[in-house]
Amino acid sequence: MATASMLKLKNSYTKKLETFEPCDAASKTVTLYSCGPTVYSFAHIGNMKSFLVADILRRTLEKLGYRVRQVMNITDVGHMTEDHLADATGEDKLAKAARELGTDPYKVAAYFEEAFVRDATALRLSIYKGSEAIEKTLHPRATAHVPEMLVMIDRLITRGYAYPDSQGQVYFDVSKFPAYGHLSGKVLDDLEAGARIAVREEKRDPRDFALWKVDDKHLMKWDPHGPEGWPSGDYERFKALLPNGVDARIKAGFPGWHIECSAMSRAHLGPVIDLHTGGEDNIFPHHECEIAQSFGAAEEANAPVSFAKYWVHGRHLLVDGKKMSKRDGTFFTARELFDPRACDRDELAQRLAATGFEDGKVPPTVLRYALIANQHVQPMNFTFDVLVQAKSNVERIQTRYAHLLEVAGEGEASKEVVAMLNACEAEFDAGLCDNLNMPVALAAVFKLVADLNLRTLSPGDASAAIATIDRIDSVLDVLDRRIRSGIVAQERLNKNEDDKNLDDLAELRASTSPDAARVESLILHRHASKKRKDFATADAIRKELDAQGVSLEDLPAGVRWRLK
């Protein structure tokens, strides 16, 4: 099995493949900040690919024995339409969506955040599982952290890294941070050329970027000198954090996108973190600016130039070799692939059905597999062939796992099987530890499946194989690990004296994801109904089980059931 010391990652900041060593190696705890969604629209598959890179990294660390505290923010203010420039120009994406939808930006953010959580949960992101899904400190909203942002901005002004203009806006002075451009690799001329597109007269340097914006038309505004515009309790918290108040020159406005992540990362993970992830498009200007302002506002002596020790970025996702395009019909959100017809995309449903997807829908586990299967430091070309192959691969692993569940039982596994399982898992771990090389890791998985298919396994062998696949799937998370089939023996049916009548089928319909015990209980109810000639209830039970994805087969030996 791999050890923690074996993990190597391509660090975007140093441009080198480095052995991962956490800041606090003794505690085995890792801090991970992931740039999350801007909730002005539904998340597309490129967004989800970026979030899944972070998820695979986290799960790899956990498999290696680390405890991971991951924070992924929700951007609900300040992300401008011209986000490729550092100057925060254009229109706030939330404000633009609110204007187009005829509502206010807070309602837009709440609606699309809820939609994102549904998609992220379906794709099995760890940060939306169990108790983590509702822990607010792991999903901080930008609008709830304006006090922390203003504290950082005030400190940057005091230390000479930032300056207000005559309108009450605040800019970071890039000339005070010589390392600006190191992450992105952009040289001075490149930075100046891009910044001149929207240069402002009062900026000292065309590269300077906005920390605080003032716009009378913007619907989301905070007054740094009074309670106007603040949600309940936030202004009081701000005053407690900065008792002497903020620089008087700052006017009522809203934060720039870049300062948000610096403030939220510091608030929930501390001043220095182990890992920061995001998409390739975040490198400049967003992450470049994060590094600069975090250093400038650092209160600690001898603060590192980069507040994150390692930066991990996923490359772009293309569709059919090009950027996603609504005009070309190649722009896909996760929810559209999960249920195209519910999203008014009948043509997509028809195309999926024609390629073998039942009901024209892509199961979330298949989309997850498709988006994690490539090497994250290489661009991904998303095609329908990729989806079809992902479906086949998930089904291949699932089928073998289901057969193992049918065979598994007590007893020792043979030494030969144990050696084979250990070797395959070691290959899987080695792939992960080689900069999250998923093609290599997945090759080990299919080697394991092939080896298992060639063997007649004892119950002990099957149980050992299940344990190995469970550990592998703790990273992949593409399997349905329930028992998927079984048989209720005729002897058990005959002994059953259940005379319960399920007239209204309320209990039957209580679960849309039946486990083995529930399925077998309902089979017994069905048999009892048939014995008392209540064929209507027996038929209703069978139909409802069929609707829940359970097929029944009446045999002389009993009733065989199988999850479809």
How would you concisely characterize the structure shown here?
The protein is built from 18 helices and 17 strands. By secondary structure, it is of the alpha/beta class. The strands form 6 sheets. A 4-stranded parallel sheet has the order 4-3-11-12. Strands 7-8-9-10 form a 4-stranded antiparallel sheet.
Overview of this protein structure:
The structure is a single chain. With 564 residues, the chain is an alpha/beta fold. 42% of the residues lie in helices and 14% in strands. The strands form 6 sheets. The chain has a 4-stranded parallel sheet. Strand 7 and strand 8 form a beta hairpin. Helix 4 packs parallel to helix 6 (234-241). The longest helix has 24 residues, at 384-407.
Q: What is the mean predicted local confidence, pLDDT?
A: 90
Which topology of the largest domain does CATH recognise?
A: Rossmann fold
Helix-and-strand structural type:
alpha/beta
Query: Any low-confidence stretches, pLDDT <50, length ≥5?
Result: 193-199
For the record, give the distance between the C-alpha atoms at the N and C termini, rounded to a whole number.
Answer: 34 Å
Radius of gyration: 27 Å
Describe the biggest sheet?
Answer: 4 strands, parallel
CATH first level of the largest domain: which class? Alpha Beta
In spatial order, strands of the major sheet run 4-3-11-12
Shape: elongated
Strand % is 5-15%
Supply the number of helical segments.
18
Instruction: Specify the helix fraction band.
Output: 40-55%
CATH architecture of the largest domain: 3-Layer(aba) Sandwich
Domains counted in the coordinates: how many?
3
